[in-house]
Amino acid sequence: MNSGSGNVPLGPLMIDLRGPEIDADERSWLQSPAVGGVILFTRNFRDLKQLSELVAGIRAARNPPLLVAVDHEGGRVQRFRRPFTELPPMRALGHLHDRNPPEASAAARAFGWLMASELRALDIDLSFAPVVDLDLGMAEVIGDRALHPSPAVVGALSAEFSAGANAAGMAMTAKHFPTHGGARADSHTALAADDRELDQLTDDLDPYRHLIANGLESVMVGHVIFPSVDPLPASLSAFWMREQLRDRLGFDGAVLSDDMSMAGADIGSDCRQRILRSLEAGCDMVLLCNAPREIPGAIEALADYCNPASEPRLARLRGGAQQTWNELRASDQWRVARKQLNMLVTG
Questions:
Q1: What is the rounded (10 degree) CA torsion for 176, 177, 178, 180?
Q2: Angle formed by the axes of helices 332-346 and 91-99, to 10°?
Q3: 71-293+313-346 maps to which CATH number?
Q4: Catalytic site residue 258?
Q5: Axis-axis angle for helices 151-167, 202-213 (nearest 10)
Q6: Is 188 a catalytic residue?
Q7: pTM above 0.90, yes or no
């Protein structure tokens, strides 16, 4: 039985939780119409039973249920470890492509399916992946999270990865639009800038064109500033979200911001102002992480917010059919996918 009020549309705010259980104040936040989802971190995971109960508790807070997401790219950005499969960094797929493109395509599809199927077995809707920033050797925060320097290779491998995840019942979120690959600073801790002109970003945008043509469901917009194009971080910019992503690239899925508590989003305004500005600029859902003191104010600021166009886009991010953990582990497809990923790591 759902314990929250009935039929509240998904709100525009995705928040996090302090630990492996839901605290009383957090439960009240989840029941707020301003909230539409929860992003999980390593601190929220103890074991499979606990995680299953936590997700069920999040689901029970509202009707229809909130979205549940996690950053589970592989490599150093994988929030849940054993007994989940230890996923390699995305760059391993690019290296395999340089040796054997057909094997890399098959491995990318298996990677996406395995990642998504294990999360769906715990009823988690989304992993914020793949990273489609080009591997330009400039952004240390991206590093081996990037697939390859070539936009064609990134587009092809990320499309295979996405097809695998879709087959497991998970929508995909390409990030960090328009790119974090050309900014040396880490937008988590500093203002990050990329000085290139718009016509110099064509290659960086090509993977998005390819994925959008193949039905991409969502995009995460980063906090990088492109001063030659727009003075605002992309996550606050109508130029990037409306003119470029929606109008020029023809994207009709959900647009999510990166975490609004990050330093890269701080342009002298407070967190509530940044959230409202991002939504007004074209974002459908804004992330607010690792800043529990900011959550009540954000919820208050969004009390009267409504964007009917966002509701169907966000609803399409819900996870599809899933297997239980034991059913998944007993399947031939899981064993084959594990073998393909083991070859990716050792090869």
A1: -10
A2: 80
A3: 3.20.20.300
A4: yes
A5: 30
A6: yes
A7: yes
Q: What is the b/e burial string over 49-72, where b = at least 16 CB atoms within 10 angstroms of the residue's CB? A: eebbebbebbbbbbeebbbbbbbb
Q: Which candidate in 95, 123, 186, 188 is catalytic?
A: 188
67-70 vs 126-127, strand pairing mode: parallel
| H-state helical runs in 227-309 | 238, 271-281, 295-301
Phi, psi of 224 (to 5 degrees): -70, 140
- Amino acid at site 151: P
Predicted confidence (pLDDT) per residue in 264-321, tens digit? 455 556 888 899 999 999 999 999 999 989 999 999 999 989 899 999 999 999 999 8
Which amino acid appears at position 77 of this protein?
Answer: V
E strands within 54-194?
67-70, 72-74, 77-78, 126-127, 173-177
Measured CA to CA, the distance from residue 266 to residue 110 in angstroms comes to 38
Q: In what order do the strands lie in the sheet with 126-127?
A: 126-127, 67-70, 35-40, 13-15, 285-288, 254-259, 218-221, 173-177
> Residues of CATH 3.20.20.300 domain(s) within the chain?
71-293+313-346
CA nearest neighbour of 229 among 253, 210, 248:
248
Q: In 215-294, which residue ranges form alpha helices assigned H by DSSP?
A: 238, 271-281
Q: Given 125, 133, 204, 258, which residue is catalytic?
A: 258
